[in-house]
Amino acid sequence: MTDPTAEFFGELSERGHEPLLEKASGTLRFDLVDGKRTDRWLVTVRKGDVGVSRRNMRADCVIRTNRALFDGLASGKVNMMAAVLRGAMGVEGAVELLVLFQRLFPGPPRSRSWRHTAGYARRQA
Amino acid sequence: MSAPLVQILDGNTFVVSDSSGDIEASLTDPTGLFSFDTRFLSKWVLTVNGQRLNPLSVDDLQYFETRFFLVPGTGTVYIDAKLSVIRQRAVGDGFHEELTILNHDAKPVDLVVRVEAGCDFADLFEVKDALEKKGRYYTRVKDGRLLLGYERETFKRETAISASAPARLDKNGLTFKVRVEPHGDWTTDLNVVTAHGAGGTYVRPKYTRGARRARPSMELSLERWLAEAPRLECETDALRTTYRRSLVDLAALRFSPPVAGGRSLPAAGLPWFMTMFGRDSIFTSLQALPFTPELAATTLRALGSWQGSRVDDFRDEDPGRILHEMRYGEMTAFEERPHSPYYGCADATPLYVVLLDEYERWTGDRKLVRELEHEARAALNWIDEYADLLGTGYIWYQRRNEKTGLENQCWKDSWDSISFRDGRLPGFPRATCELQGYAYDAKMRGARLARLVWKDPALADRLEKEAADLKRRFNRDFWVSDGEYFALALDPDGNKVDALASNNGHLLWSGIVEKSKAKALAGHLLGPRLFSGWGVRTLAAGEGRYNPIGYHVGTVWPFDNSFIAWGLRQYGFKEEAAEIAAGILDAAEFFQGRLPEAFGGYDRPQTKYPVQYPTACSPQAWSTGTPLLLLRTMLGLEPHGEHLVVDPALPGSIGHLELLDIPGRWGRIDAFGRGRVDVGGKRSPRR
Question: What are the pLDDT digits (tens) for B434-457?
Answer without folding.
Answer: 999 999 999 999 999 999 999 999
